[in-house]
Design a protein that fits this description.
About 35% of the residues lie in helices and about 25% in strands. By secondary structure, it is α+β, with helices and mostly antiparallel strands. Helix 10 runs antiparallel to helix 11. Strand 13 and strand 14 form a beta hairpin. The strands form four sheets. A five-stranded antiparallel sheet has the order 4-5-10-6-7. It has a four-stranded antiparallel sheet with strand order 11-12-13-14, with helices on both faces. It has a three-stranded parallel sheet with strand order 1-3-2, covered by helices on one side. The longest helix has 23 residues. The protein folds into three domains: about 45 residues, Uridine Diphospho-n-acetylenolpyruvylglucosamine Reductase, domain 2, CATH 3.30.43; about 110 residues, 2-Layer Sandwich (Uridine Diphospho-n-acetylenolpyruvylglucosamine Reductase, domain 3); about 110 residues, 2-Layer Sandwich (Enolase-like, domain 1). It has twelve helices and 14 strands.
Length: about 290
């Protein structure tokens, strides 16, 4: 199929793009990597009257360190993030999760910001950003700039808090505490397919070897953080029985949806198994 008719714009500066978004509002859609939006347009599930292409805006494509914080421009390609030495050295969970996004050809075109704004329930990057406690910088011509936490950004399947004239311009990821291990676990029919279940975990140990901090997040209708399970582990020494119980507590009432690929019950069961594996691997890496 072919998309419905639309007007195309290719600004070269962020200011120009913001002017276009303010001018057209709900009738406009920004185009990042296009790996999700273009198929939706071809199927006529999305019918923007105006398409604002962000690919020529160089100021939105960067990875940099700022006071131990990783700053990611919204147009940074997923493959750039996956191969970056900054992510490898300081944010290995982010690098590991990105390697599960589609295939290399997809990651070569797909952008970090585009994946976050698409907010697909099985996407890897939203889950990881919540686990890492990332913040998102949103900008509009009307309200200028605001910052929101990753766990506030996505409000439902393929739904975010972005206003019609707003753009996500930057992702800020804080540094991990010392002695922190990580793990990203996912199950899909084939590597590169949409995840049926996905889990991100971080475990930080204190000088005595006890768990000082834990993060456990799941893919679902929105990225879900299991704070009850995290609190259960605090002050405890890493052990298989502890992680098995934490995984059970985290997934007991975990919201999941059924579709043609898997039932909600299967997704909960798979999430429990993946959570146990992720916590064990994260704790081992923390040592």
């Amino acid at each position: 199929m072919k998309p419905a008719a639309f007007d195309y714009y290719d600004p070269t500066t962020l200011s120009e793009a913001m002017d276009l978004m303010a001018q057209f509002g709900d009738a406009a859609r920004p185009l990042a990597g296009g790996q999700s939006l273009v198929p939706l347009m071809n199927l006529r599930l999305a019918r923007p009257s105006h398409l604002v292409d962000l690919n020529r805006i160089d100021e939105l494509n960067y990875l940099k360190l700022d006071h131990s914080e990783l700053r990611i421009g919204t147009m940074t390609r997923q493959r750039q993030l996956e191969r970056s030495k900054e992510a490898r050295n300081g944010w290995p969970l982010l690098r590991e999760a990105t390697s599960f996004v589609g295939h290399v050809q997809i990651r070569n075109r797909g952008t970090v910001g585009g994946s976050l704004c698409h907010a697909y329930p099985s996407a890897e990057l939203p889950v990881t950003m919540v686990a890492l406690g990332a913040s998102f910088v949103l900008r509009s011509r009307r309200d200028r700039e605001r910052m929101v936490r990753a766990d506030e950004f996505i409000t439902g399947p393929m739904t975010t808090i972005l206003e019609a004239d707003e753009l996500l311009v930057e992702i800020r990821v804080p540094a991990l505490p010392p002695n922190t291990g990580w793990s990203f676990q996912e199950v899909s029919r084939r590597h590169g397919d949409f995840a049926l279940a996905a889990v991100g975990a971080l475990v930080s140990l204190d000088s005595a070897g006890a768990i000082a901090r834990a993060r456990l997040t799941f893919a679902g209708p929105t990225p879900l953080r299991a704070e009850n399970a995290e609190n259960l582990m605090l002050g405890q020494r890493p052990a298989e029985p502890l992680f098995r119980e934490a995984a059970r507590v985290a997934t007991k009432d975990l919201p999941q949806d059924s579709d043609i690929h898997a039932s909600a019950d299967y997704r909960r069961h798979a999430s429990e198994v993946l959570a146990r594996r992720a916590l064990n691997e994260a704790a081992a890496r923390a040592h």
